[in-house]
Design brief:
The complex is a heterodimer of chains A (about 270) and B (about 600). Chain A is α+β, with helices and mostly antiparallel strands and about 270 residues long. Chain A has two domains: about 1-80 and about 90-120, no CATH class; about 135-265, Cupredoxins -  blue copper proteins (Immunoglobulin-like, Sandwich). Chain A contains four helices and ten strands; from the N terminus they run αααββββββββββα. With about 600 residues, chain B is an all-alpha fold. Chain B has a single domain (about 30-260, about 275-550), classed as Cytochrome c oxidase-like, subunit I domain (Cytochrome C Oxidase, Chain A, Up-down Bundle). Chain B is built from 18 helices and two strands. Chain B has a two-stranded antiparallel ribbon. In chain B, α5 runs antiparallel to α9 (about 225-255) and α8 runs antiparallel to α9 (about 225-255). The longest helix of chain B is centred in the first third of the chain and has 37 residues, at about 85-125. Chain B starts with a helix and ends in a 59-residue tail after the last helix. Classes of the chains: A alpha+beta (about 270), B mainly alpha (about 600). At the A-B interface, α1, α2, α3 and β7 of A face α5, β1, α12, α13 and α14 of B. The structure holds protoporphyrin IX containing FE and copper (II) ion (CU) (2 copies). The site of one copper (II) ion has 6 residues of chain A, from loops.
Chain lengths: ~270, ~600
């Protein structure tokens, strides 16, 4: 039976690697079981993921094969040699502490720049001031309130534009968004943008990215916010600067109109 | 709920013929004997294991066939809803599944069941240092069982703000159906579990420090005891924080303090009275406990696996001292990595960076342990018994869980995979693939000591094979889902167009999960059959070295029928100094 069990354990690295390769290549039947299309300029998340995938993948395969080989070879029904009376090996211990330590330290330092880019280096204006947010996104059970500053470029003034679950951003521009929450925690998750930030009531936060591909993408709520969490879905549209300006103008006009109509009705 | 416990033990009582109600109660119910308490913990936690498993099937059902009637279990779980899972019910399911599995299964089965049973036996003591405290630590679990159990029957059918219970969702009674009474009961239950663990850990620490048999130096302790010792330390230092945080949340909910609520909060159109607090404070306090808690759920398992790997490879442990240092390293670093659960929470990004470095470093002792286990089986005489298979599974699965941890420790990657199924894959590989496999192995291994009879090997191997296959079928593909950004905790992920192609693979996983739970029938049958009819085990059926194997099976009150004296470490297998391939710790050295 030792042979049988060895092969069962061998199947872990073999099948595991196969599934990852299959999904990453998008082969049948695992099409679309991998990263959603990347639509921002910064590919550091994907790059880092693949770097770690290679490193850990090698460790995974090598340890899996060792386990298999030891089980195959030292099965007591097949192995004629007596068990080795050994309490360890100092050099091996040093080796397998120092090598992983170096790799892990390398990874730790290597990723710092991407993190700083995503969270610490907010885009600047030419005059050295931090770039003001294009819009404010507020999470509330169970919808995303979107607020654009309007012509005066200031939030919370009379010409603000209010929308629900519908966010538009211009392409090829650094976009800064202010995000916050009204009631409980939510999380502003844009899978195609590799962006996620919990929104916390009482805290004002900023996220930024530079979209480079036109299209409509999901805004997902990724932090449990109550029974309706699953349907807290928004949509983010990336379009050219001109289309964006036109859309914003129309949104403003629509809003004026509906307010006018409301006033009429009363 | 305790009928199995009562039945199992009542049968024993009859075998020992006439003996009054008073004796029965003091021997089997309110016993102060560490072995009985350990077995009581074992039965209670295994029962909750089953309940937790059924809750999980509910979750999986919804992810595979959303909004459709669930056969058999559906009407059982939620008759009122006619077998269909509502979103609020789904939220409750994953909250209570995680709560039950962490607080009522894994933590108490490791520390409560195996800690209690094994510590005095393995160090050569008669009993725990404080037997009455020990008994109370078990009976403190019952209020917890009651509060968690009863919370299924109040409004909302149970707490439903996740096992992490993040405020304001959990503190504002209007925020969710389960945020009312059920959440209060959840907090009280959690406190009871905490008190129980605290009583246990004080006892374990004292016992291990004070009551070792002559010759049992710290560096001759079995790895299981090292695991339990460090775990008890972790509990003692981390638990007070969770308990305090629990009380703060309770106060926020009941008397209107605002520890975790900011100014001007409006939930569901009702305003929160107090303010001035911070939701992130809870997350810090919660993870300050719950990160060490993941090691509380792991270190004893690592110890038990080391035991079994040596015994069934007939080889000394590879690198005993590095293994001990690795456990200590994990425990030490374990206190400064909690922030890795909060990389995207809104915590200061500079702080996130320091937590990232510490988290990367904690993968190091885990790697060292894995290499030493591989070193242990290298060059051995490997016997493929059921406990050995489960231990090997532990090693193989722990590698996966540890490696996926590195992805999440990388802050920029975590931005993408946080709160996706990648996380779910990670912790199921360490907790189910890891700890639960170790626990199954340990049950097969120490069963003869607990009940004096052997479990059936063939049934054990079938149980192993099915569990191992379906476990990977259920959890491996979660990595892929995570890479696709599939979020956790959504009642209907297919509400998003993007995730709709992932439905078939979810159905595959659900089928595997159902089969995995069903396979446990082999274990249950084997377990109960063997208690009564298994072949009688001698003192040392596995030819192992530990002190517990020198005591009778099962050991009587006071454990040993001789005074154990320890001459060597626990892993002297295949020593050239003796004829046999094992060399019990108590056997005096052969004169040459
Ligand atoms: C190799 C060492 C490990 C590393 C580097 C690591 C890293 C991490 C990280 C960074 C997270 C947070 C991910 C996120 O929410 O975005 C996490 C979550 C988790 N880890 Fe680990 N981990 C390791 C080992 C373990 C072990 C041994 C266990 C348990 C026995 C464990 C149990 C958990 C659990 C339960 C969670 C998820 C909690 C939740 O959000 O519900 N981890 N781990
Ligand atoms: Cu949400
Ligand atoms: Cu952690």
């Amino acid at each position: 039976m030792g042979r049988f069990w060895s092969i069962i354990f061998l199947s872990i690295p073999v099948l595991g690697t196969a599934i990852f390769v299959w999904a990453a290549m998008g082969w049948y039947p695992l099409e679309g079981h991998w990263f959603p299309e990347l639509v921002v300029a910064d590919d550091s998340v994907d790059h880092l993921f693949y770097t770690i995938l290679w490193l850990t993948g090698i460790v995974f395969i090598v340890t899996g094969l060792c386990l298999f080989w030891f089980l195959w070879k030292y099965d007591h029904q097949k192995n004629e040699e007596p068990a080795q009376y050994s309490h360890g090996n100092h050099y091996l211990e040093v080796l397998w502490s120092v090598v992983p330590a170096i790799i892990l330290l390398f990874l730790a330092i290597y990723q710092m720049d991407a993190w700083a880019g995503a969270r610490m280096r907010r885009p600047m204006l030419e005059n050295g001031q931090p770039k003001p947010p294009l819009a404010r996104v507020t999470g509330r059970q169970f919808e995303w309130l979107i607020q654009y500053p309007g012509d005066d470029k200031k939030l919370d003034t009379a010409d603000d534009i209010y929308l629900i679950n519908e966010l538009h951003v211009p392409r090829d521009e650094e976009v800064v968004l202010e995000i916050t929450a009204k009631d409980v925690l939510h999380s502003f998750f844009l899978p195609n943008f590799r962006e996620k930030q919990d929104v916390v009531p009482g805290m004002k936060q900023f996220v930024w990215f530079k979209p480079i591909k036109d299209g409509k993408y999901d805004i997902v709520c990724a932090e449990l916010c109550g029974w309706g969490h699953y349907k807290m879905k928004g949509q983010i549209t990336v379009e050219s600067k001109n289309d964006f300006d036109a859309w914003l103008k129309k949104a403003y006009a629509d809003q004026e109109l509906s307010q006018y109509k409301l006033a009429e009705a009363e | 709920m305790s009928s199995i416990t009562a039945d199992g033990q009542a049968a024993h009582a009859h075998a020992r013929n006439e003996f009054g109600v008073g004796e029965f109660l003091s021997t089997y119910v309110f016993s102060r004997d560490h072995k009985v308490i350990g077995i009581q913990f074992l039965f209670s936690t295994l029962l909750w294991f089953l309940i937790g498993g059924i809750l999980a099937i509910g979750i999986r059902w919804q992810l595979a066939w959303p909004w459709s009637d669930m056969p058999v279990i559906g009407p059982l779980l939620f008759s009122a809803e006619g077998g269909q899972i509502s979103p609020e019910f789904y939220t409750m399911l994953f909250t209570m599944h995680a709560t039950v599995m962490t607080f009522l299964v894994i933590i108490p089965i490791l520390a409560g069941a195996f800690g209690n049973f094994l510590i005095p036996l393995m160090i050569g003591a008669e009993d725990m240092a404080f037997p009455t405290l020990n008994m109370m630590s078990y009976w403190m679990m019952w209020p917890a069982f009651f509060f968690f159990g009863a919370s299924f029957f109040v409004a909302g059918n149970g707490a439903s703000s996740g096992w992490t219970s993040y405020p304001p969702l959990s503190t504002m009674t209007d925020a969710a159906p389960g945020s009312g009474l059920a959440q209060t009961m959840w907090l009280i239950g959690l406190t009871c579990v905490g008190v129980s663990s605290m009583m246990g850990s004080v006892n374990y620490l004292t016992t291990i420090i004070q009551m070792r048999a002559p010759g049992m130096t710290m560096m001759r302790l079995p790895m299981t005891i090292w695991g339990m010792f460090i775990t008890a330390l972790l509990q003692a230092f981390a638990l007070p924080v969770l308990t305090a945080a629990g009380f703060m949340q309770l106060l926020d909910r009941t008397v209107g303090t605002g520890f975790f609520a900011p100014e001007g909060l409006v939930v569901n159109n009702s305003a929160m009275a107090a303010g001035g607090g911070q939701p992130l404070l809870w997350q810090h306090l919660f993870w300050f406990y719950s990160h060490p808690a993941v090691y509380i759920m792991l270190l004893p398992a690592m110890g038990m696996v080391s035991e079994m790997l040596c015994c069934f490879s007939r080889k000394p442990l590879f690198g005993y001292k590095p293994m001990v240092y690795a456990i200590c390293g994990i425990a030490g670093l374990g206190f400064i990595v909690w922030g890795h659960h909060m990389f995207v929470s809104g915590m200061n990004p500079a702080l996130g960076m320091t937590f990232m470095v510490a988290t990367m470093m904690i993968a190091l002792p885990s790697a060292v342990k894995t290499f030493n286990w591989l070193g242990t089986i290298y060059g051995g005489q490997i016997q493929f018994t059921t406990p050995m298979l489960f231990s090997l599974a532990f090693v193989s699965m722990f590698v996966l869980g540890g490696l996926s941890g590195i992805f999440m420790a990388a802050t920029p990657v975590d931005v993408f995979i946080h709160d996706t199924y990648f996380i779910v894959a990670h912790f199921h590989y360490v907790l189910f693939g890891g700890t639960a496999m170790a626990v199954f192995g340990a049950i097969y291994f120490w069963f003869p000591k607990m009940f004096g009879r052997m479990m059936n090997e063939s049934l054990g191997k079938i149980h192993f094979l099915l569990t191992f296959v379906f476990l990977n079928g259920t959890f491996f593909t979660m990595h892929i889902l995570g890479a696709a950004g599939f979020p956790r905790r959504l009642a209907d992920p297919y509400h998003y167009e993007t995730f709709r192609p992932l439905l078939p693979i979810n159905q595959f996983m659900t089928i595997c999960a159902i089969l995995m739970v069903a396979s446990q029938i082999f274990f249950i049958v084997n377990f109960f059959y063997s208690i009564f009819f298994g072949p009688k085990a001698g003192r040392n059926p596995w030819h192992a070295n530990g002190l517990e194997w020198q005591a009778p099976s099962p050991p009587g009150h006071g454990n040993f029928d001789f005074q154990p004296i320890v001459y060597r470490g626990p892993y002297e297998y295949s020593s050239p100094d003796t004829e046999e391939d094992y060399y019990p710790q108590t056997q005096p050295p052969v004169e040459k």
